[in-house]
Every structure is written in C-alpha cells, then in structure tokens.
Amino acid sequence: MEITPKIQEQLNQLNDKFDAINQNTSTHLEGLLWAKPITYWDYIQTDALLNLQIQRTTLPDEMVFVMYHQVNELLFKMILWEMNQLCHTEQPTTAYFTEKLGRISRYFDMLTTSFDIMKDGMEPEQYLKFRNTLTPASGFQSAQYRLIEFSSTDLINLIDNRFRATIDRNTPYEHAFEHLYWQAAGKDYHTGEKSYLILEFERKYKKVFLDWMEEYNTINLWRKFKQLPEIDQKNPELVAAMRHYDVTVNITWVMGHFNAAKKYIESVPGNHEATGGSDWKKYMLPKYQKRIFFPELWTKEELDNWGE
C-alpha cells in the first residue's frame, strides 16, 4: 500500500492522539491486526437486547406488554440523553435549544402515538390474568420518567397542587420530595403511611431523585429557555414548540396511558385497582394534579381548564 500524503497525515494525527494519553501508537496499530470487523449485531448488541424479554406467565400477550414498556424506557433514555446535553450547556444558543427541544418532542410524540399498540394489542382476558402476577409492580415506578420531569421544569410545578403554597425555592429537597404530586398515588396524607409501591420505589431511587432535583434546580429546560434572548423567548414558533412539549407530556401522553389502562382495568365488572394499588384515576388524570411544566406560557383560562 502506498503511503499517500493523506494516509501519512492520518498516521500523524493518530500518533498525536495516542501521545496525548501517553500511549504507544505502534501497539495500537498492531492491535488492529487482530481485531475482528464490527457487525451490526455486535454493535447493537442484538442478541442481548432480544433476550431481555422475560415473561412471568404463559400468556402470549404478556410479551407485548413487556416489550412495549421496554421500548418506552429506551425512548425515555433518548429523551434524557438530549436533556442532559442541553441542560448542561452553560449558555445555549437559540438554534441549539430549538434543535434539542425538537428532538425531545419528537421522541415524546412517538411515545404518545404508540399507545394503540398496548390499548389494542392485547386481549383483555389475557391482560386481566397476567396482571395479577405483576402486583405490586407498576409503571408508576419508572425512574426515568421522573428524571424527565425534574429535567423539564422548576420543582414547584411538580409539587402536589394542595401544597404548593407552602413550598418555595428555599424548602429542603427532602421536604419537597415528600410533597411531589405522584406521592398522592400511594400515600395517605391523613396518616402519612406510604404504600409498598412507593416505599420500594424510594428504597431504590430516592437518593438518585434528590441528587437530580438539586442538580437540575437551576439548569432545567425551563431555565435554559429563560436564558435565551428575550426576543427569542417571545418567538411564536418557539413558544408553540414549548407549549406542544408541555401538552404532549402532561396531557396527551397521560391521557393515552389513562385510556389504555381504563380499557383493560374496566373491561369486566367490579372494582379493579392498578397493579401497584394506586388510585390510578386521580393520579393519572391531568385535571386533578395540574401538572404543567411552563405555566408562564399559558393564559389563566388555559391553566384553569388544563386537562378538561
């Protein structure tokens, strides 16, 4: 092989790269002799990925349920990947902010349009059988979804609507955590007793949540929006994109989940709780909790009628 000027330049760049980390270029080049070519299945880890679907029953439609939720978690990870980059950019440009917001919204648009897979993709009879093997687990326990919420907005907007007046930016994170809106799904505020659903969730993730709440307190998506030039904050297209994300996450996505759950849980007569034992209707319906990421971008009438 002829050592062309281009190849020589590439070799020089490799040498500079390895010198910078105190490595021997020759050793790395020799290693290439024995490295096998990359394949699609090795790069994507297809075999490992396709072996993560473990059913607890012999009912075929449980596989749909498992895979659908795993796809959700992968999309949540994609959203957090973009948010992490945007929120940790010290002074994002409007173009950069808009690009990242577009990616985040597209991932959530994909999530919201996917609910027909679960709503119409399982036989209710099968679901009502295999769901009994899932208790007390619940989709409520998706930690990534909570991290997305913390990354999107000021913490006060995630506090239970009944307690927001008693909490401000000086409130200890531990106290704020106890009054997050989703605590209402399994906490008796008269006795203070928590359900097993929340106790296990907190045992696994509470420290992660408290650290994330503090880290994103001043760098969340809303705070990054407020760093943009004032003229750009009033740009109709950008405001519409922010409002779209707000509605998509806090109404469209939630109602899609609610309608899917309602179809199966209420498919037979009787009082059927969610698998985690939560008051799923009051927890999920937007009109009860008024989960709104960017309240400053909505009129009073829109806020009052949120989720109606």
TrEMBL record:
Pfam families: Trp_dioxygenase. InterPro entries: Trp/Indoleamine_2_3_dOase-like (IPR037217), Trp_2_3_dOase (IPR004981). Signal peptide: none annotated. This is Tryptophan 2,3-dioxygenase. It comes from Flavobacterium celericrescens.
